[in-house]
Amino acid sequence: MLGIFDSGIGGLTVVKELLRRAPDASFVYLGDTARTPYGTKGEETIIRYALDDAKFLIDRGATALIVACNTVSAYAIPALKKAYPAIPIFDVLTPAIRAATSSSASRIGILGTSATVRSGAYERALKTVRSDLTVTSVACPLFVPLVEEGWLHDDVTRMVVARYLAPLKEAKVDTVILGCTHYPLLQSLIAEEMGSDVTIIDSPKAIMDEVMDAHADLLNTNKDQQFWFTDLQPATASIASHWLEREIEVRKGEVG
Amino acid sequence: MLGIFDSGIGGLTVVKELLRRAPDASFVYLGDTARTPYGTKGEETIIRYALDDAKFLIDRGATALIVACNTVSAYAIPALKKAYPAIPIFDVLTPAIRAATSSSASRIGILGTSATVRSGAYERALKTVRSDLTVTSVACPLFVPLVEEGWLHDDVTRMVVARYLAPLKEAKVDTVILGCTHYPLLQSLIAEEMGSDVTIIDSPKAIMDEVMDAHADLLNTNKDQQFWFTDLQPATASIASHWLEREIEVRKGEVG
Question: Which of A62, A64, A69, A185 is catalytic?
């Protein structure tokens, strides 16, 4: 059974992509909504939270982990692999790097949380694969709250997008990596601002390509689909159902 | 010794007001930056976090508590009083209510986090004191991230302020309560949007009036001033120092 986790509801974009390809897949999802967001926090805290989340999923039967959070992918993969050496662990960063470097990209833009950008993880990984690349990274701390406010096609959001994307336009990037699972919800505004010549790499699609290749066996199972959140509010089920475009039941779990 | 806590750095607006009045006060401050924000979370989580925070401060010698967080003030005061019946506990809500109702206000607007507005705590308290009042509440989830992004005098922030304040202008409120400790940093934009006839109640000032009246003895002490945060990043000390307009040292603590 797949275990999928994120700091909150953002990772549901990965679940949505999984369900599009394998509607009967079995998985347990954890959104750490009681401690969200991770992307504004420090390395030590992010690693501690990632280990708590992985333990929760493994205790519930996960035999492979999808880290559906770029911030965790940027900081905590070595700690997770050390803690669980026998469990396959997929991060969202590696497939996005692969998708970006296999295209004809030469100037790449990264959009991410403050923590992801500060980590330099994308830059290091891109340069390791292709040292000729130019990389420009921008932290976009307002994107997550704008998405959570539901202002997806809004003049305010359009202004914020223009502000954050200005350095990428100035650097004339040809490829943009959406380095946070919330950002695909702003993809049309970002594409509009960047223009149609720029390729946009969407992490949920990239990671599911990778998982489908490696673990097709995990996907055609008995459709045991669990959604756990560490903070549950009256609106959590309807917000999660809205993101997934299907009705789901949610449960409350404790981590840490 | 005073114990002061908030979900993060917002409560430093209360510390700043304390230091303005009593530069030699002794206090221990806790910002729960590892789990911030509280204002997007549910009642059970908020109460649990408030009890953790209070325990941390009492363990470090606090003999009175200032809850410098409106979200905690809206949900967790009964739980805190039950857990610590012998300790004076000041919330930020009560003094703001007192300041608002002692003026000639008749139509009051409340700005707060999603959790504070959902609680209805301000409305209930205002109506208990003066049943003739009309109250309009608006959740402003983007204000905290805008303040933390540092866009205090920015066109984007101006647009968001106009959007959130529209229902208050429509209701022709004569008084606005800034129901979150981050919001005083947007006070000039809010005042500009509302116009000069509207009174703005600033919680840090209101709560320090109350504390000075009740516990003047606590303030002239040996200047033991401690700043603890549950998540510490390279920039935490400089951000906190910037908010307080003085250099401070910060320490890392664990709660929960």
Answer: A69
Q: Which amino acid is at B84?
A: Y
Domain residue ranges of chain B, discontinuous segments joined by +: 2-91+206-252, 93-203
DSSP string spanning A38-104? -TTS-HHHHHHHHHHHHHHHHHTT-SEEEE--HHHHHHSHHHHHHH-TTS-EEESHHHHHHHHHHTT
Question: Looking at the partner chain, which of B44, B156, B233 has a beta carbon nearest the beta carbon of A156?
Answer: B156
Whether A64 and A2 have beta carbons less than 8 Å apart is answered as yes
Contacts of B44 in chain A (CB under 8 A): 231
| CA–CA separation, A222 and B105 (whole Å) | 62
Query: Of A42, A44, A88, nearest to A65 (Cα)?
Result: A88
CATH of domain A93-202: 3.40.50.1860
B-chain residues near A34 (CB < 8 A): 35, 41, 45
Question: In this structure, which topology does domain B2-91+206-252 adopt according to CATH?
Answer: Rossmann fold (3.40.50)
Consecutive 10-residue averages of pLDDT for chain A (256 residues)? 94 94 92 96 97 98 95 97 97 94 89 96 94 96 94 96 98 96 94 96 90 76 92 90 92 94
